[in-house]
Amino acid sequence: MSACPDPPPPGGVSLRVLPPLSLYIHLPWCARKCPYCDFNSYEAGAVPEEQYVAALARDLEQAVPLVWGRKVRTVFFGGGTPSLFSARAIDAILGTVRALLPLDSHAEITLEANPGSAEAAKFRGFREAGVNRLSLGVQSFRGDFLQALGRIHDDREARAAVEMALRHFDNVNLDLMYGLPGQTVEAAREDVRTALAFRPPHLSAYHLTLEPNTLFYRYPPPLPEDDTCAAMQGAVEEELAARGYGHYEVSAFAENGARCRHNLNYWQYGDYLGIGAGAHSKISFPDRILRQVRQRQPRAYQEATAKGAPVQEEHEVAPGDLGFEFMMNALRLTGGFPLALFEERTGLSRATLEEPLAMAQRRGLARMEGERLAPTDLGRRFLNDLLQLWLPS
Known about the structure:
Strand order of the largest sheet: 9-10-8-7-6-5-4-1-11
CATH class of the largest domain: Alpha Beta
Shape: globular
Oligomer: single chain
CATH architecture of the largest domain: Alpha-Beta Barrel
Number of strands: 17
Number of domains: 2
Largest sheet: 9 strands, mixed
Strand content: 15-25%
Structural class: alpha/beta
Distance between the termini: 8 Å
Number of helices: 16
CATH superfamily of the largest domain: Aldolase class I
């Protein structure tokens, strides 16, 4: 068994400062479930928009005591496909947020959208409702790859949606995937070049993986070999670096000033309140860190919220798990993290890092740069091997 950090001293968690707080809002419906998707999402007939918005309002109102007085720095509408909801519904949700929580005047407010033409027409309404960052699930600009992924949009709709998104939003993220069925290294490179022609402020590039409980997992498509996928990743990173995009997290690239503040808060072990079906929360207190999961099924969630009990699971993070939890997030950052952040967010001494860090350095998986711990290129490639060094006994 690899070395692991010592447990914290008796008495459990002890935090001097509470971390920044984000709000995640889950809208779980999609026009069609993609065969690779393992998110908590459901195919929509008619989305019960009014009832669900009311349930979110009740959920948030019941959760306010957990975060009383704490300012919300970022808001993220995830799914599912949040852009299936009307701009009026998004406006109503944000109105409730502002009424119940102190929302930072410069809060980053992100909404995920898909490039279907009917949804793209809503972009102006989302902007007027208060959304100031749009994350567009393009995945590919080639029709054959989109078809293989089971996407409902084609390459023409993808381009039109990107143009419309950039017309209404200064801050736009484009999601791309590589390692697709039948994809070559040059095809992956061409997808990135097409995306870069639009000059989006932010780009996320994900390797397609076969997740349990998905159609692709049960009926795997023919995927490129591992070495080919590694070459695709290298090509993607090369193209983005050449255009000046900073590679700040495993799958995230941004122009100066355009890093996703919401996701950075996750990776830096910040706090987040999650509302909506299946949403997760991590809430810190001076003496404990609480994790919650809401009811997963939308109907069960709405019924439970009406009874004042939307939370399905709840537990406090064991002090011995804090180091691994922190590392599981922070080691995704290519620039790593300052040791002071580890101490602040976990309440643990940096001395608990010494033994696993020494082993990581011997294996070439991590490095120290002054007071900053960062994964090496090898550590990013074999991130699970690096993380295992911090697993609790």
